[in-house]
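In this supplementary section we document a worked example of the pipeline. Step one takes a protein sequence of length 281 as its only input; no multiple sequence alignment statistics are reported here. Step two produces a three-dimensional model, which step three serialises into structure tokens for compact storage. The input and output of this example are shown verbatim.
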Amino acid sequence: MLLARSLRAVSALRPPLPAPLRGLWAAPPRALPPAPSAAPGPARSLWQLGGGAGRTALLRPRRGSAGRVSCGCGGLHTEGDKAFAQFLTDEIKEEKKIQKHKSLPKVSGGWELEVHGTEARLVRKIAGEKITVTFNINNSIPPSAEDDTQEGQKPDEQEPELTSTPNFVVEVIKDDTKQTLVLDCHYPEDEIGHEGEEESDIFTIREVSFQPTGESDWKDTNYTLNTDSLDWALYDHLMDFLADRGVDNTFADELIELSTALEHQEYIKFLEDLKSFVKCQ
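The serialised model returned by step three reads:
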């Protein structure tokens, strides 16, 4: 009798098993469900029904058919690629119609032009000095140009031409020195000039530094003068220094025309390369 009461007391103190475990103890063992790989899921069934193209249509809705186009090159070509290539063909024709310069315009003042892809260099030699102006057309079209055009343009007005205004670097090298004077220039959004002047400068000097002549990599340890807090008298002398060497407003205007023509030329070439890349041969 005492042993039975002791056993009942011990069982009363033992915490109850969780519901799922109690169910497992009470119910007979059940068969485990089959592994996930045993039955194909819905995505796999859709892939089989669609023959491969249906998957693309489900993941990314298309306006046209995504069926493959027969091609002997072994590459992937779709109806979308074919439509893309046709669009590029029409776009190239339109861009060539509005292309203002079939060949790059020249800059007056005896400047020699060197072009390497998107980078251009203008070189001029005068009285023992070599002046080099370098610019790159990448990201040279102001991003706000399109927004300003759409906001203030009337339906019957013709869209203005895109203009390339790249930053450019002027290097002045003297024959008898081992240092090169480097001036980093750019076109501001608004023309900057002094009040009361008839003509304002369409470009500004942003930074000035000396770099070792003949070295392709500039040293960050060399002092760089930022013109934001520069005295106006010193700044004006720097602008006059450039103007005496042919880098003035006339040069800056012609550089914009040259850069715009080069940018448009490279854009058409990019469209042609893109067409060749996606075209079904």
